[in-house]
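Tokens for chain A. Residues wanted.
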């Protein structure tokens, strides 16, 4: 008798990058640095993620769990949203691909145990099920609507221990003004202190920024291909990390031709090249 065929419902990802999502190199490096620095300093605590999608960022958070620490993720997955605006967000961006079982099989491709999963709107976490002060790191990456994000930030504040860190996604994207409003409101009226800004995420704390800031300054981000800048926002120093933009490499023959031509001819040649480029003929 032929062996019974079993069809895997979700092909297991081979590497972390195979998991669909919006969690890219720079923030992956920032999460890794911040979580490892906490561990090295002996800071213990649970990790909480609001909005996990198919597990791309949750898998990395799980990498940093140490004995006795717990990861909790909260996502609607395939359940209904609680209001029409959130339902519209879900329909536009996630419904076609997102199921809880896909999240679970992606997570289990890299870890032996699932995290605690709360399949519900993140607003349920306001009931205190995450013990106050129990977390060292919270990633907020769920709904983009102002009311929801403001609530998620309040959950993060209550969950975090004294110097715990929050990462807030999409704080500056054109299509997420509600997130920007909630984040900067938390800064100006809620005591949230910015520590690090990347193009995608705001990192901050309600505690002291000193140790985290120092560890970020000591790390050689440039060697890893990132730019480092500093800004002051209403008297608070904050670091900015971004990707280095690589200058286009010119071919040797073209560089040589431009170097050898007299300046007038070079300018004329550049103009011709520019025109041809604009007409997309080269
Ligand atoms: C941008 S995705 C998360 C991406 C994920 N962190 C990553 O890096 O790949 C947003 C997630 O938030 C979830 N979500 C949206 N609104 C929510 C709500 N009100 N409560 C819980 N989850 C929500 C969606 O189901 C989706 O999985």
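Reply:
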């Amino acid at each position: 008798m032929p062996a019974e065929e079993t069809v895997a419902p979700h092909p297991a990802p081979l590497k972390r990058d195979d998991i669909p999502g919006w969690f890219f190199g720079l923030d992956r490096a920032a999460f890794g640095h911040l979580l490892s620095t906490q561990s090295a300093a002996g800071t213990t605590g649970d990790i909480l993620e609001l909005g996990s999608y198919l597990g791309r960022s949750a898998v990395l958070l799980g990498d940093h769990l140490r004995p006795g620490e717990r990861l909790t993720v909260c996502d609607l997955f395939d359940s209904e949203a609680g209001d029409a605006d959130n339902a519209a967000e879900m329909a536009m961006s996630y419904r076609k691909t997102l199921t809880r079982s896909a999240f679970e099989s992606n997570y289990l491709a890299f870890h032996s145990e699932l995290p605690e999963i709360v399949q519900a709107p993140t607003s349920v976490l306001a009931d205190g099920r995450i013990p106050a002060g129990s977390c060292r790191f919270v990633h907020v990456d769920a709904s983009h609507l102002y009311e929801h994000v403001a609530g998620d930030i309040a959950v993060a504040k209550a969950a975090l221990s004294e110097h715990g860190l929050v990462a807030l996604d999409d704080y500056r994207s054109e299509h997420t003004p509600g997130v920007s409003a909630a984040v900067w409101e938390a800064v100006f009226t809620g005591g949230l202190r910015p520590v690090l800004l990347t193009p995608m995420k705001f990192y901050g704390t309600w505690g002291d920024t000193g140790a985290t800031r120092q560890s970020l300054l000591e790390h050689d981000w440039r060697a890893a291909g990132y730019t480092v800048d500093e800004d002051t926002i209403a008297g608070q120093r904050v670091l900015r990390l971004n990707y280095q933009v690589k200058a286009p490499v010119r071919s040797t023959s073209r560089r040589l031709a431009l170097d050898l031509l007299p300046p007038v001819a070079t300018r004329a040649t550049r103009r011709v090249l520019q025109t041809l480029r604009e007409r997309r003929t080269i």
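Residues 1-8, 275-282 have pLDDT under 50 and may be disordered. The chain has two domains: 16-243, 247-282.
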